[in-house]
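TL;DR need structure tokens for one chain.
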Amino acid sequence: MVIVFGGAFNPPTIAHREIFYHIKKSLKFETFIYLPVSNSYTKSSLISNFHRLNMLNLMVEDMEDAIVSEQELNDTDFLGTYKSLLRIQELFNDEVAFVIGADNLRNIHNWKFAKSLLTEFKFIVINRNKIDVSKYIKNDKILSRYIDNFYVTPKFNMNVSSTIFRETLDSNYVTNKVFEYIMLHDLY
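>> reply
TL;DR here they are.
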């Protein structure tokens, strides 16, 4: 199995790193891919692809089985998660599962090609904001149809986010190498 963790990683935090280890405790996989979105994705305060890629590469240096994909960074338009997962599945010729925060489940039906995404891929759900994920999926009209495609990880409790880092510049929220990089390039 190939696990894909997509996001802005603006910047990559210790929580992004710990999610890898958290999943590794309960699921067997061959490769874990961090998939940063490109600047084509409409998200405010997104720093350049170049810096986010460099920070992710610094973060994964010592993480066996973890890599960073430039796939979406090289796209000229935002194609959506579904198209990205299809390309990764073709490249690795293996089952692909996508990591998603529980808070993102509420809007997944609005994603590009949502029905195909939910039908064709597995999801590894990371609990955030103390949501009862299993209950939420079971009670949601759309998600309940695909209940077998969701794996809810055991509790993951880290109150760390890229937003909190950007607001505080607290070095405890990122790895030392990422923090040094941010300071060197005067980011955020």
